[in-house]
């Protein structure tokens, strides 16, 4: 489900679905010791495509992507947001972005829906992937191997 604006209050958690998941290459580099909670979650309304060593989520109504909902420690939030934007090559308003950071609802294990930051494929990347990319069936980056 699309969420147009972040809710007021504390910082939003991040939904991670690729190299930032526990056990993947970027988890410990960016998240270790900087989170309060990490829990399994699903991003409904999205599918996953293989990239050059990392995945891209593309919004499509019939799909779902598996990942984790990561809640950052308050004192680490601003720095983590900056670092994740850099990692994902996201700059607000830049047409050369690989990803766009958007607010979407994700579903945690007990069925609750929560607003979170999600990095989805930028429009030009999404168009290229839809025309000639390789979709990861089942929407789980870990299961692709």
TrEMBL record:
The keyword Chloroplast does not apply. Pfam families: GGACT. SUPFAM superfamilies: Gamma-glutamyl cyclotransferase-like. Its EC number is 2.3.2.-. CDD domains: GGCT_like (cd06661). InterPro entries: AIG2-like_dom, GGCT-like, GGCT-like_sf. Residues 14-142 form the Gamma-glutamylcyclotransferase AIG2-like domain. GO terms for molecular function: acyltransferase activity. It comes from the Bacteria. This is Gamma-glutamylcyclotransferase family protein.
């Amino acid at each position: 489900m699309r969420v147009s604006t972040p809710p007021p209050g504390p910082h939003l958690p991040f939904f991670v679905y690729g190299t930032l998941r526990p056990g993947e290459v970027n988890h410990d580099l960016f998240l270790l010791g900087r989170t309060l909670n990490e829990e399994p979650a699903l991003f409904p309304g999205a599918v996953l495509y293989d990239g050059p060593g990392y995945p891209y989520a593309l919004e499509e109504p019939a799909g779902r992507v598996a990942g984790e909902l990561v809640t950052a420690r308050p004192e680490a939030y601003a720095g983590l947001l900056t670092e994740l934007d850099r990692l994902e090559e996201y700059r607000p308003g830049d047409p050369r972005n690989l990803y766009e950071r958007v607010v979407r609802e994700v579903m945690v294990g007990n069925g609750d829906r929560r607003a979170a930051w999600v990095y989805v494929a930028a429009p030009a990347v999404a168009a290229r992937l839809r025309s000639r990319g390789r979709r990861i069936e089942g929407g789980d980056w870990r299961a692709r191997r």
